[in-house]
Amino acid sequence: MTAIQISNVEKSYKSLKALGGVSLTIQEGEFFGLLGPNGAGKTTLISTIAGLIRPDAGSVSIHGHDVVTDFREARKKLGVVPQELVFDPFFTVRETLRLQSGYFGLKNNDKWIDEVMGNLDLTNKADVNMRALSGGMKRRVLVAQALVHKPPVIVLDEPTAGVDVELRQTLWKFISRLNKEGHTVVLTTHYLEEAQAMCQRVAMLKSGQVVALDTMSALIRRISGSQLNVHLASGDLPDDLRHLVSHDEHGNGHGGGNSYSLRVNEYAEVEQILARLRESGAVIDEMQLQQADLEDIFLQIMDKGTV
Amino acid sequence: MSKGVSFISVGFQTLFYKEALRFWKVATQTVAAPILTAMLYLLIFGHVLEGRVQVYPGVSYTAFLIPGLVMMSVLQNAFANSSSSLIQSKITGNLVFILLPPLSHWEIISAYVLASVVRGLAVGAGVFIITAWFAHLSFVAPLWILVFAILGAAILGTMGVIAGIWAEKFDQLAAFQNFLIMPATFLSGVFYSIKSLPPFWLAVSHFNPFFYMIDGFRHGFFGVSDVSPWTSLAIVSVFFAVLAAIAINLLKRGYNLRH
Predict the structure, then answer these.
(1) CATH 3.40.50.300, domain A2-221, yes or no
(2) Is residue B2 part of a domain?
(3) Highest mean pLDDT range out of A36-40, A91-95, A161-165, A287-291?
(4) Is B103 an interface residue toward A (CB < 8 Å)?
(5) Which of A174, A180, A290, B145 is 20–30 Å from A281 (CA)?
(6) Is the pTM of this model over 0.90?
(7) Distances, alpha carbon B168 to alpha carbons B98, B116, B233, in Å
(8) What is the domain partition of chain A in residue ranges?
């Protein structure tokens, strides 16, 4: 079943086109990453999903409910952690969460509120006024507010921006659990290693357009491949392997040898390269297989602007 | 977790409770301070004008002034409640907590307006309790008192919603309050009967809806008023309906709320 359907969404602010016809389908139970540089349109897209921004064209639906025409049903299915660190200074943490439950039509929700607070290490702050909390604690409350109604779709807009390692670990543990229980998760983050660790599928936005959309593994495989770094104690790289060189540091290797970085698309190619080096009489004294990561792909895609 | 099922939705109840709790948590500022202000008005104007002015036969100036001050406090505080809550939430960004849930336009406006009515009535009751000691007051038609107090507070609460939605900065809201609400309140006959005005200003006063709220409210105390309370009720009701329609329309369009 489709969790979020985004169809040709366009949004402009005067002359700035924030979203230029974005279409995405996110399936139920997915952990989906929405990546892009600042100003790419991620928050505009999330705000459109949340109904905070009305698109100029196109439509968005959550579990089949249009976010404009059927907004009540759509919003019941959605929990959003906003990017800005906002809070209501009049209330304690528990009051804040009870109020948020009530807005979603839930009374007597303390059991789940306690569980959410427990999972986000907020229990000992339950009766503390929001004003007295640190930035990291306020961020936890924002996450808790988005989860008070157990939404099947959770949208996290840079939830770990400026927060410590402890919160990140706590948050990802809890969100992973919810995802395993069937909740769909959409994440935007500038921490690409987080996206790589958590997301099954990724869309990359640039200037309001989707420039890449694939599973994490396919994206990494398709775009970049890996690198085999070798340092030769003696001998030299055969000519027929030189086309694989992506970067070399002649003369900088240990013992006067040469260092090479060779592009490798499949693991089987590693054995072929090593065999060819042995044949040519070269002696390897250091070797490392470096996997391409999301950051390499991100930079590559943002440079090229498309897949 | 259980879903509350009732005629009055849980969403509405919660938002109303939040709005009422918000002003109650700072009651010194939102309830006690306006009561003190009204008390000062009574002491100064009552001291200066008592014995010099008689608006209705057999009614002292202080007795005439008290219902006006009570109603003025009701109106100003009802406006302040919804308008300040909305502008603060907009500027601090926490309005998102109201915009993300599945609250209907009706639930939102009803909750904000009802909380404004509660604050307006709380302040009005406080002003009355403190000032009633200074003059002999009669209660000829208590129902009129209640009807106009509630309707007046609802109207100003709705105006507060409109102003809170429209304003993007505190100074825009202050302009709304200082250039519209304050003059309309002060020129509505709080301190005088409009019959004492020159013909031009007497005619102008009849276009001020605030005049009908205060005149009708005062009728409940003395049984006399500048116009019939039924006329006032009709005008005030129509004014409320128009304002409510405007506020609902703004919320539906997401004006200055959903961009």
Answers:
(1) yes
(2) no
(3) A91-95
(4) yes
(5) A290
(6) no
(7) 17, 20, 33
(8) 2-221, 226-291
